[in-house]
Prior knowledge:
Blueprint: E1 20-24, H1 57-69, E2 74-78, H2 88-95, E3 107-112, H3 117-127, E4 131-135, H4 141-148, H5 154-166, E5 172-178, H6 187-194, E6 200-205, H7 223-233, E7 236-238, E8 249-253, E9 259-263, E10 276-279, E11 284-286, E12 295-296, H8 298-302, H9 307-319, H10 325-328, H11 342-345
Parallel strand pairs: 1-2, 1-10, 2-3, 3-4, 4-5, 5-6, 6-9
Antiparallel strand pairs: 7-8, 8-9, 10-11, 11-12
Helix pairs in contact: 1-2, 1-9, 2-3, 3-5
The protein binds S-adenosylmethionine and iron/sulfur cluster (2 copies).
Amino acid sequence: MPERFDTLPCRDALQRPLHDLRISVTDRCNLRCAYCMPREVFGRDFVFLHHDALLRFEEILRLARQCVALGVRKIRLSGGEPLLRRGIERLVEMLATLTTLEARPLEVAMTTNGTLLAKKARDLKNAGLARLNISLDALDEAVFQRATGGNAPLAAVLEGIAAAQAAGLAPIKINVVVKRGINEDHILPLAARFRHSGIIVRFIEFMDAGTRTGWRLDDVVAARDILATLHARYPLRALDAQYPGEVAKRWQYTDGAGEIGVIASVTQAFCHECSRLRLSTDGKLYTCLFASEGADLRAPLRAGEDDEALRNRIAAIWHARSGRYSQLRHAMRAAPTGRIEMSYIGG
Ligand code: SAM
Ligand code: SF4
Ligand code: SF4
């Protein structure tokens, strides 16, 4: 490796280490959440990526291996809906064989909408999946349908969660995107449902990712308001972060019922600790969720570039990284145009 990449983990222009890689394995989804793939935009005529454009599992593994050699300790599979990608458990198995710089097994995680999980949970566990986040915005059928576009019953997600628990997939986290006028009344029921279950509910501020969700600041329920709602009913005590760069602020119920998290991506930016690189479904590398352009790795990969050259390419991209959109958001007069969509980059 060239001398300037000698220090590992690889650090960016703001000295942030490379620790996390998020891989979008498909840009397709069976749901149409209004804050991610609104039905009006992602309708029948929407053109998704052609099958040949998708990175094959072997290609993902090769790129992942280079990222791990540069410092990545955790890989999260996402999408679109990752469980729509045929044979996804095989990819989990392949990635779980990798070893980090600290000679520990690579942590392979997944974020899923849970609707297809009931059938897959056991296989994912057997394949070596270490962590699972399941998105669930409400426990009321009508609200769930409104939030997710009406393609699947709430019961499918609840069955998925139960199957994941039965398969021993722990820790399970529930991701709740809180959007004003849609589900802010469902914060307490969601907390109540998962208290004492060992499952950690994480409330996420609605973010202005992509360009097609009609995001408005007025629709964001600030983390401090989410916490105030929770704390008034179930007193909370702050917990320390488990590692630098942890995006969720952690809280514990003082009565011992478990833990919750709050992700304040809009009102309390955590860019200064952001250690995440993103690989799109078609092999582009993005250094920020709000980037408008990615670096194509599929072309050099398919042109036969060797591992060292690929690794140097990835290292150079991380070295040049200076993005910190969420910290600068409020100082910008207008959001950057041409931002990538969440479903393409994996959230
Ligand atoms: N389909 C899977 C799912 O929903 O869990 C994985 C992909 S989804 C893009 C990943 C995560 O991003 C989900 O937890 C989802 O709730 C979150 N997300 C999507 N759009 C969002 C937005 N505008 N603001 C905040 N979180 C969002
Ligand atoms: Fe699909 Fe996940 Fe986006 Fe909802 S958040 S539309 S489930 S990719
Ligand atoms: Fe990381 Fe970009 Fe999000 Fe900041 S805005 S936390 S740099 S992905």
